[in-house]
Amino acid sequence: MTEIAHAERDHALLSASASHRWLPCTPSPRLEDTLPDSESEAAKRGTLAHEMAELKLQKLFSGLTTRKYNAALKKFKAHELYEPIMDDHTNAYVDYIQSIVHQFPSPPFVAIERKVDYAHIAPEGFGTSDCIIIGSGRLYVIDYKNGQGVPVSAENNSQMKLYGLGAYKAFSLLFPIETVHVAIVQPKVWGQPSEWSLSANELLSWGESIKPIAQQAFDGQGEYVPGSHCGFCRAKSTCRARVTQIMEAGTKAPLKPPLLSWAEAADVLKRAEGIVSWYSDLKKLALAEALKGGIVPGWKAVEGRGSRDYTDLDAAFKHLQEKGIEEAILYDRKPLTPPQLEKALGKKEYRELLEEPGLVVSRSGAPTLVADDDKRPGITNQVKPEDVFGPAPEQPQN
Length: 398
Known about the structure:
Among the domains are: 2-219, no CATH class; 237-291, no CATH class. By secondary structure, the chain is of the alpha/beta class. The N and C termini lie far apart (84 Å). It is built from 15 helices and six strands.
């Protein structure tokens, strides 16, 4: 049995996708609600990928005809934000869902793009779950994410748990549910989908435990609590609590002894995290205010460095060649990198033409410092300082 829903992509005040923010910082939803929202190009590209994934699931589970499928897919591929690798990534998502469905002894219930209601936990709460699968006492809640900037783990993920609570409320009278499995398919980050499971009773207990927090968030009450969850908050640049935390970061280091201990350095790193991106974001906001005629005391908007461009590129190059300028001078020929080729060719063709013949090699990335709750395994004693910072400068000779 398959259910296809075409829910609008609107959002509740206490949206599941922002729950990682409003659970620790309860006043933030009401504050964000006073600020304008803007959709980035990455978000629009993600929406396109989601629509492609939904189309492929419709063909697989709802009997969408090949003719209608091909016509719709052609429109998606003609979209200005379409990338060939979207096909690979959405195929990976569909393949994963198929693999789950095939685990059941008989065909399970499948709901695609289902609007779920969790208002019994968070006032007026609802959201759209990408895919829900139910059968044999198991509930699967699966989410596709197109982004790569922020890896999203399924483990203890509040968004997925809220979707799970909404799905349980909608279907538990029709289907027995003992175990809830959540999965996030994020092909640009994870080699395999991120998965996590808990019992239905554990999920229901968690839902009860956050009810008072959700009510506080809905009422706009509580303390502002800055942290890593601030990343996509619309108030992140001008939130007084966050600015105070950032500006105080440098004052927390003791004056004596003259060198920080690593424990003290770790604390300062944690407090000062995000200061560079915050400053950049705040400067952009101030520029926008100045450009619309607002006053930002001590600052003003000016024209940046100008640029030059051809009035007609083809005509300009034709003229240069007629004047004896060789074509090789006019073009900078650069080979595409393996990631660029994978994006251009698609994962399947890239793998067949380059990976399988052994024509590409994967190298580890440069070491980077992250918080200890990062899912990647730690490394030690594998690199020398000069591998990170480069060779030390030569000392002048006496």
